[in-house]
Write a structure and sequence with these properties.
There is one protein chain. By secondary structure, the chain is mostly helical. Pfam families: DnaJ.
């Protein structure tokens, strides 16, 4: 399995880097790889990866989730280019994407059964209320 470049690798910072170190690395790399400055055809792709890594690491909550995923060995792609739309808009929120994993065996049935039970209870409750309403009014419509 090929190794995935982490957000820390992309920015060239240590996993215990401070927000100031992350910000400084981002600014340095963004100036170097910005497509308006760098004529290299791969500069735009690299710039997007740098921007995505920065957005992931600069937010404390996102960084904590990202670090947890790294420690747990979860599959993710910190700069999945297939998720970008033309014009520079992202089709997903800043951070990282999870690789699709197969659900646990039978997980789909559990959700289906829960939905059936909830709907069944709602229907039974409506029938009981209807019967109580008729009993109170003597079957007359109000």
């Amino acid at each position: 399995m090929p190794t995935v470049e982490t957000c820390y690798d992309i920015l060239g910072v240590a996993p215990d880097a401070t927000p100031d170190e992350i910000r400084a690395a981002y600014r340095r790399l963004a100036k170097q790889y910005h497509p308006d400055v760098n004529p290299d055809p791969d500069a735009g792709e690299r710039f997007i990866a740098i921007q995505q890594a920065y957005e992931t690491l600069i937010d404390p909550d996102t960084r904590a989730r990202y670090d947890l995923a790294l420690r747990n060995g979860a599959g993710f792609a910190p700069h999945d280019q297939s998720r970008y739309r033309p014009g520079g808009q992202t089709a997903w929120t800043p951070g990282f994407t999870w690789r699709a994993q197969a659900p646990a065996h039978g997980a789909g049935w559990l959700g289906f059964i829960v939905v059936l039970v909830v709907w069944g209870m709602a229907i039974i409750l409506m029938l009981i209320l209807s019967l109580l309403s008729r009993a109170v009014t003597g079957g007359r419509r109000q």
